Amino acid sequence: MHTESPITRPTPFACIQKTLRAVFSHVLSLYVYVQMYSVLWSITVSSEKTDLAALSAASVDNKLKKRKSRP
Q: 12 with 4: CB under 8 angstroms?
């Protein structure tokens, strides 16, 4: 989910992070520079079962290949 800017909106960012960590076992924040705002913004993925930070690139590639639909 979109989780605000940790730089320009640190209070909402921290609140969202705290809430997600209280609900989910695994919480991983990703940061992206948004040129229009000239600042970092965050996207956070959360899961009860899967620790996304522990997945290897090869594992993700395999999962995507298995789920790819073909005409």
A: yes
CA neighbor of 19 nearest in space, from 46, 43, 42 = 46
CA separation for the pair 17, 44 (Å, rounded) = 8
Question: The pTM is what?
Answer: 0.77
Place of tokens 């899961």: 47
Per-residue pLDDT of the chain (71 residues; tens, 9 = 90+): 999 999 999 999 999 999 999 999 999 999 999 999 899 999 999 999 999 899 999 998 888 898 886 55
Cα separation of the two ends of the chain: 30
Q: What's the rounded Cα separation, in Å, for the pair 56 and 45?
A: 16
> Among all chains, which residue has been given the structure tokens 């320009």?
8
